[in-house]
Amino acid sequence: MNSAARKIERIYLTLTLGNTLAASFIWGINTLFLLDAGLTNLEAFAANAFFTAGMVLFEVPTGVIADSWGRRVSFLLGTVTLAASTYLYYLLWQISAAFWLWAVVSVLLGLGFTFFSGAVEAWLVDALHFSGYYGDLETVFGRGQMVSGFAMLVGSAAGGVIAQVTDLGVPFLVRVGVLVAMFSVAFLLMRDVGFTPERSPHPLQATRAMLTASIESGLKNPPVRYVVLAAPFSAGVGFYVFYALQPYLLELFGDPRAYSVAGLAAAVMAGAQILGGWLAPTIRRRVRRRTTVLVVSSSVGALILVALGITRVFWVAVLLLVLWALVSAAGTPVRQAYLNDMIASKQRATVLSFDSLMGSSGGIVVQPLMGRAADVYGYPLSLAISGVIELFAVPFLLASRRRRSPADTATTATGTPA
User: Fold this and answer.
1) Ramachandran region of residue 70, left (φ > 0), alpha (ψ -120 to 50) or beta?
2) What are the phi and psi torsion angles at 142 (to 5°)?
3) Distance (Å, rounded) from C-alpha 116 to C-alpha 353?
4) Where are the alpha helices (DSSP H) in 97-221?
5) Which of 21, 142, 160, 258 stands 20 to 30 A from 6 (CA)?
6) Residue 225 CB neighbours (<10 A)
7) CA–CA separation, 97 and 364 (whole Å)
8) What phi and psi, each to the nearest 5 degrees, are found at residue 330?
9) Which stretch of 67-71, 87-91, 262-266, 342-346 has the lowest confidence by average pLDDT?
10) Closest CA to 374 of 244, 257, 256
11) pTM for this structure?
12) How far is residue 77's CA from residue 292's CA, in Å, rounded to a whole number?
């Protein structure tokens, strides 16, 4: 990696660190926060579903903004939108607002995150290509995941402790402060390199053209299509499990106000992310095809969830949580590299946003469905059912594998240039 590429990587890691840190202050206590505001399990997970609905609604439009106005513009808009909507969440908690207000603000939270999804990853890959980096993308994405895991470890653990010594609302205010700081950092450091935004005087026409090109590069490209179609099952389950583990572990622990234990759940997953990000390049060098990693990761993760739903012992549940997070984390950089190596630069942010949209679509269905299952049958059975749902991703990954894309066995960055 030359000095120019190293500089791009440092900026990417800085943005990843700050964004994940800001977001993770509430990850360990979000479900408890919603329940404390007076929502039922069904309403709490329905609020999360409205969050993912916001991501589905705005993913592609914000991806088009990133491809037509620039990835830097998209990132800056994301920090402002997410900071404002997070503060509104805090206000709703203070007044024990009606559910419909939680639904509206949850959609706005989803909007904030869609400005990031696709844009940062697309910015990184294009800037690396421009800088003359032709190494494997798993290495860079793995480092990003390690940094993200470290930030999540610090933020989620701190959020749980802060909530316990103050109240459940303070971590949300801390998130707002960090997001404001990240706006300044991105404004100073981030520049669109290796990519020239194509701004049109006719935005609707430009959006239509970008969407058409993205469909050609995405859904009409079979190996990409099948990876994207697997996303609703794996990502939808991931959304539910992450938030369900907070009250589930508290239930096993026996103290409903041990908020630091809820923070521990997110912190454990963060530690596994660090290790998974570190292992991903090594695994990739030992496994010839990227789809092999993806199929094994999804299958083993599903089986672990079934086991997690059976256990009633707190420390066994924590161990299974570590294993599930580690298996998922090791596969994530490989999936990112595989997908990016099959996408053209000009539509990269839009296609990646569409992939995120599909994952969020799964969250819209899985979260309230499993939340209702938790209300009726309890968290253990809902987690076991989630494992079965994740298995539905495997046939799509195998279908992508059968298309034998060159990206499946690539060992250097091969993404189509602008």
Assistant:
1) left
2) -65, -45
3) 9
4) 99-114, 119-130, 137-165, 170-189, 203-217
5) 21
6) 17
7) 22
8) -65, -30
9) 262-266
10) 244
11) 0.72
12) 37
Instruction: Classify burial at 358, counting beta carbons within 10 Å of its beta carbon; exposed 0-12, middle 13-18, buried 19 or more.
Output: buried
**Band (416; pLDDT cuts 50, 70, 90):** very low
Handedness of CA 23, 28, 31, 32 (dihedral sign): negative
Query: What pLDDT, on the 0 to 100 scale, is given for residue 413?
Result: 52
Token representation of residue 80 = 């402002």
The DSSP 8-state label assigned to residue 416 in this structure reads B
Amino acid at 66: A
* CA atoms in the 13 A half-sphere facing the CB of 88: 16
Alpha-carbon span 1 to 4, nearest angstrom = 8
Q: What is the pLDDT of residue 418?
A: 38
Mind listing the pLDDT tens digit for each residue in 170-182?
Answer: 999 999 999 999 9
Mean pLDDT, rounded, for 279-291: 87
Q: Under a CB-based contact definition with an 8 Å cutoff, are residues 86 and 172 in contact?
A: yes
pLDDT digits (tens, 9 = 90+) for 12-52: 999 999 999 998 888 778 888 998 998 887 888 788 888 87
Place of tokens 């890691």: 13
Residue 66 predicted with pLDDT over 90: no
Residue type, 95: I
Q: Which region, left, alpha or beta, applies to residue 132 given φ > 0 means left and ψ of -120 to 50 means alpha?
A: left
- Strand, coil or helix: 88: helix
Measured distance CA(342)–CA(406) in Å, rounded: 9
User: End-to-end alpha-carbon separation of the chain, Å?
Assistant: 21
Give the relative orientation of helices 259-286 and 290-310 as an angle to the nearest 10 degrees. Answer: 150
Where does 166-258 have alpha helices with state H? 170-189, 203-217, 222-253
For residue 417, name the pLDDT band (cuts at 50, 70, 90). very low
